[in-house]
Amino acid sequence: MPGRLADRMLSWSDANLATLGHWFMREWSKVERSYRRPFSRIVFRLKFAFFPLLAIGAIAWLAWDWSHTRSLAAAEDAIFDYVVQWRPFEPKPSGQVAVVEIDECSIEHFRARGEGGWPWSRQRHADLLDQLDRAGVAAVGYDVLFADPSQDDPLGDQTLEAMAEGGAGRFLFGSTRLHPDYDERSPLPASQAPAAFALVPDPRDDPKLALLLPFGEAMSRNSAILNVTRNEDGVLRDIPLRETAGDWAVPSLSLRLAMTAMSPSDRPPAATVRPNWREETRLPHISAADLLTGEAVCGDATAPLPPLDGRVVLVGYTASGLNDAKPTPVDPVMPGVEVLAEATEALLAGSAIRMPPGGLKYVIATLMTLFTTFAFYRGEPAPDIDSVFVAANVGLLSSSFIGLTFFSFFFDIFASVGFVSLIFGLCRLYAGIQRGRAVGNGDFLPEFAPDRDRWLAIARLRFVPDVQLDARAAARRRREYRRRLRRFLYAGSDAVMLEGVVERKSWLHDALSDTMILVWHGGNAAAARVAALGDLGR
Asked: Where do the DSSP E strands lie in 246-303?
């Protein structure tokens, strides 16, 4: 008895599920027809004119975007972050740049000895510079702003000033570019700013420039700008190399450090540099306490300190409580001194990421849009279009990863690929409606009514090549025949085509792939015959 009850319940459940499924399919078909049939009527009127119209509209938008918002470029920045993070491996440091970090351990070490916490005395900073000088560094960039003299350590101020005076330009100190609103009240012309250089051969425009310089004369003379600017989304990708004022420019700390170690150039440096950001293979780091004490106070006692002889060193604080974190593509809280060190490394090692001109992505998007719409306009087979489109995208994406990983070149075509994928999707959707009409899909056309259309005319079309043609020429003719027939039927006719009778990968496909069954309907034999002969004649 329990088994019979279970069988009845199962039978009842199956019957109700089948009824529910049939009801859902019937109602969902009504929903699809409610929007597909109006689209089908639009497609019947536009025919293949849709594709050139779409190309014109897409290219017009690209031209407008290039001259206004450049949203493709903004989208590329976010994609760049993922490419940097997903590349197979990171570049190794060149060994020319190192970072001396004033970290939590260094601050706590001197606080525990009763010598004060942060801020450090000027004498301790001078001692740090002295240790670096003894280590034989090529240059030092100090990412700490000494804006005012110290009331508690005047002797330390004098020592710092003396080291700046005797360093022969090897010791550079940070300065800050103030807001442009303060320029008019500044007594400093741009040409008189520290290490200012002309951007044009005959500079004439020399406006005032508001800078917050270090307190000492020698320190001011041997200073450079610390300001950095984030991208619109708040991420720091490109590091400014100069501050421009009229026909003059003032170098950043990274640029001026590089200029001390590189041969001079007649051309002005670029406005920004994009470092080859790294997360795992970081630049060499040394804790300031280890350098000052000569012992492994904060670092690994078993590992020797990295050599500093001949290196360019940047000194700055990395302690989290000092709030100098910058969001970068590989680290949302990268210390500012490491950001400047990466920019310096990019300049000295020539490892900066190079990018094509900004307009290239718009050119690629335009060309791929024209290619895509033209292929659909010609009525090429959908599998062939899909294969070529996927292969082109894979090639472009692969080139971007390979270029960034091995050649420090970011081929920024992701936004272009995304834009063209949207165009491709619209073309595919439109071609799908064309095909739905051509095969007589009831979602796009009124369904066949046997009581109204009593007669059917059926024709089998098959391409027969010229026997005088070789195999290659015959294949080209066959392919052209299929394209023209498909384009004729997709444009709208009285015929309904029956294709795909043989599966594409079947062994019969080659023998029957050029066979097409066309069906016409009519209320009587004459009407069906007239419709068939009309289309066949065309």
From this structure: 248-251, 272-273, 285-287
- Please report the DSSP string for 308-334 in residue order: -TT-EEEEEE--GGG--EE--SS-TTE
| Distance from chain centroid for Cα 433 | 33
Count of C-beta atoms within a 10 Å radius of residue 213: 20
Angle at 34 between CA 28 and CA 37, to 5 degrees: 120
Rounded CA separation 442/436 (Å): 8
pLDDT digits (tens, 9 = 90+) for 102-150: 999 999 999 988 888 888 999 999 999 999 999 999 999 999 999 999 8
CA-based diameter of the chain, in Å? Answer: 113
Q: What CA–CA distances, in Å, run from 415 to 83, 168, 276, 504?
A: 13, 48, 21, 34
DSSP 439: T
Cβ proximity of 376 and 432 under 8 Å: no
- Report the number of secondary-structure helices (H) and strands (E) in the chain: 16, 17
Quick one: which H or E segment has residue 155?
A: helix 154-166
Structure tokens at 219: 């320190």
How many Å apart are CA 240 and CA 255, to the nearest integer? 9
Q: Pick the closest to residue 297 from 98, 100, 99, 110 (CA basis).
A: 110
Phi/psi of residue 474, each to 5°?
Answer: -65, -40
Chain centre to alpha carbon of residue 470: 48
Give percent of the chain above pLDDT 90.
39
Convert the pLDDT of each residue in 187-205 to its tens digit: 999 999 999 999 998 999 9
First to last CA, the chain: 71
Secondary structure class of 51 (helix, strand, coil): helix
Q: pTM above 0.90? A: no
Please name which of 216, 203, 283 lies closest in space to residue 248, comparing C-alpha atoms. Answer: 203
Q: How many degrees, rounded to 5, is the angle at CA 516 between CA 515 and CA 521?
A: 150
In the chain, the amino acid numbered 430 is: Y
Per 3-state DSSP, the chain is made up of helix, strand and coil in percentages (nearest 5) of 50, 15, 35
β-pairing, 248-251 with 197-198? antiparallel
Give yes or no for a contact between 237 and 274, defined as CB atoms under 8 angstroms apart.
yes
3-state DSSP assignment of residue 229: coil
